[in-house]
């Protein structure tokens, strides 16, 4: 799977997943093959690493693996609002790719469950607190640097009206 700007949620991927990826967001809710992220220069991938062995299958020559921050306040606000991620007053979680990972993941999984009927997505959502620490963020080193430079030039991130 090579991505240049789309948002994709998949429930597994074979060898060379996100190879030469240059943009977009990929969320993998299942197993990955070897050589994940080889040549990945842009975009972000999130991988559910239930077995804890994803770093052995990821090509770390251009990317770093990060835990997904809990962002407790945002998630509590979301869960207590009834879970409607499309409600007004929400922060645009796709605008700033260096923050809001937990909320972005949750939104992607909710949408995946809604549009596909995925039982995998529903089981993750039902036990969110247990699954969240098992996600790894795959972040290209140069992409992170470029995002930081852009953020420094443009100032604080924009909020959606009503926030």
Structure characterization notes:
- The protein has 163 residues and is α/β, with parallel strands linked by helices.
- Helix content is 34%, strand content 20%.
- It has six helices and five strands.
- The protein has helices at 54-57, 72-80, 101-116, 119-126, 128-131, 141-154, and strands spanning 4-10, 22-28, 42-48, 63-67, 135-140.
- The protein has a five-stranded mixed β-sheet.
- Helix 3 (101-116) crosses helix 4.
- The chain starts with a strand and ends in a 9-residue tail after the last helix.
- 28% of the residues are buried.
Features:
five-stranded mixed β-sheet, 163 residues, alpha/beta, 6 helices, 5 strands
Compute the CA-based radius of gyration.
Answer: 15 Å
Largest sheet: 5 strands, mixed
Neighbour order of strands in the largest sheet: 1-2-3-5-4
Count of DSSP strands: 5
How widely separated are the two ends? 36 Å
Given the C-alpha coordinates, what overall shape results? Answer: globular
Layout of helices and strands, plus pairs?
Elements: E1 4-10, E2 22-28, E3 42-48, H1 54-57, E4 63-67, H2 72-80, H3 101-116, H4 119-126, H5 128-131, E5 135-140, H6 141-154
Parallel strand pairs: 1-2, 2-3
Antiparallel strand pairs: 3-5, 4-5
Helix pairs in contact: 3-4
């Amino acid at each position: 799977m090579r991505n240049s700007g789309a948002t994709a949620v998949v429930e597994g991927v074979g060898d060379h997943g996100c190879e030469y990826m240059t943009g977009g967001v990929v969320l993998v809710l299942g197993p990955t093959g070897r050589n994940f992220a080889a040549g990945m220069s842009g975009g972000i991938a999130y991988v559910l690493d239930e077995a804890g062995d994803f770093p052995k299958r990821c090509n770390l020559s251009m990317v770093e693996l990060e835990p997904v921050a809990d962002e407790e306040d945002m998630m509590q606000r979301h869960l207590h609002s009834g879970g409607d991620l499309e409600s007004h007053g929400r922060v645009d979680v796709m605008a700033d790719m260096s923050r809001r990972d937990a909320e972005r993941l949750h939104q992607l999984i909710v949408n995946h469950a809604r549009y596909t009927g995925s039982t995998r997505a529903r089981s993750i959502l039902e036990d969110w607190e247990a699954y969240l620490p098992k996600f790894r963020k795959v972040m290209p080193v140069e992409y992170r640097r470029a995002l930081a430079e852009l953020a420094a030039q443009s100032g604080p991130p924009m909020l959606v009206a009503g926030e």
